[in-house]
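Field reference: sequence -> structure
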Amino acid sequence: MAGIWFPVLSEGRAALGIGVGAGFNVAEARGLGLPFPPVAERFERLEETLRICLQMWSDDEGPFNGHHYRLERTLNSPGTVRRPHPPILIGGSGERKTLRLVAEYGNACNLFHGPDLQHKLDVLRGHCDRTGRDYDTIEKTVLLPLDPGPRGERVPGLLAELRRLHRIGIDHVIGPIRGADQLAALQLLGERVVPELPHL
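Structure field:
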């Protein structure tokens, strides 16, 4: 029920962030008593979940008959606040499956930061071309650790990387705050990075 009510309580600001689940989640899944099937099955389940969500957010309350999931009725009550549905952010950088799912179902992607990021964007563009999706309608986000350094010594490098990400088409950066003193890091980011963002 929380997943159904959250978009309503957030007045439409919530997004569905979803992915296949990385290998480091095995211990967490086992600890919670949840199955952690092989990666191929997790991708199948992810795609079926996306299809179920989209059907629930449409006017079709009919049954869903997938390989892994079967629903007699895809009821979504209360309905969605955002139309046609909450944004779908798909996390991961897998070229054959994850980025194809982004092109077919996603409103946004969350990629891993690395030297092959431009290549991943090119792969996503190729999937969009094959499916008839407008590449520019997909919001591109990237995971980037935000570490300004204890005295701000890493700020110039961080700003240079943010400029590069902006140039290649990244819309948003999502990142953990690194460093022993996170409040000090946040203050440095607020004082020395945030004011520069409009000038990227």
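Note: The CA atoms of residues 66 and 192 lie 51 Å apart.
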